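Journal club prep — side note

Before the paper discussion, L.F. wants everyone to see what a predicted structure for a comparable chain looks like in token form. Sequence:
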Amino acid sequence: MFDNKGFPKAKTYWFMGKFYDWSEAIIHPMTHALHYGNSVFEGIRAYKTPQGPAVFRLKEHLDRFMHSAGILKMKSPYSIPQITDIIKSVIRENKLESAYIRPLLFYSYGNLGLIPKSSPVELLVGAWQWGAYLGENALTGVKVYILPWRRVHHSQYDMSAKLGGIYVQSTICGLIAREQGCDEAVFLNLEKNVAEGPGENIFIYKDGFLKTNDRSESVLEGITRSSILEIAHDLGIQTKVEPITKQDFLTADEAFFSGTAAEIAPITRAKDASDKDTPAKDHTIGSGKPGEVTQKISTTYGDCVRGKIKKYEKWLTYVD
């Protein structure tokens, strides 16, 4: 039996056509994905709006979900329209006004050789109420640990896919950052430019431009990232998509993480441990406080996802 202490307001989850009580375990310990990480997933948020809960950019998330499944040679047992309805039903069943939603496709029980030749693909969807991913400190700025380990490189696999096993690196390095007294990690890539966080994209504001990088810099081009680029353009903020050097990052006027879980989290301090042969050094980003551009984008993004800006309702899927 499992409690929902870490999953507030979660009462049930959906698995292969049925709802189960949150405390009920139904996955066999010899499930293929449990041993090899061959799963794909999405992190999706729904927000409370004047018209009830609305899922942010659901279509884009599910398009990527199916793309990821294709990269892992999975054939989903459910279509995008069916998964859309399942997600809505999970939110309704749990009576959630806002939610973090986790759909998961995985190779299930059947065999345990590396090739899942008799392990079927199964779908699970859960949802719960989840606040700020990086904690309430994220509102006033987080401290990051620039890792000595390099991000998995775009030449090694298709970085447009969210593959469960790849996130082992994120888990390890996120734990290392916290051991070092930081809130989150930052990866450099093999070219020694800034890549991303363990589960977040990175933006900097410098010399009058809002800048982020792309897939060629070994990042997953997040859905929140693309939303921010559009919002910034609409706000009259000049943007660039190009490599971010470590020096650019450390001397930026402002910096922030973006992601579905993290939303927008200002980065105000950094501990640079990227060179194993040099002692780690602390840096302040900009003024050491969330910057004006970051706050403007964050406020607009928050209004957007909560249905307060008509222009961005195109991104909302209302549950009811």
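L.F.'s comment for the group: The first strand starts at residue 12 and ends at 15. Keep this in mind when we get to the figures.
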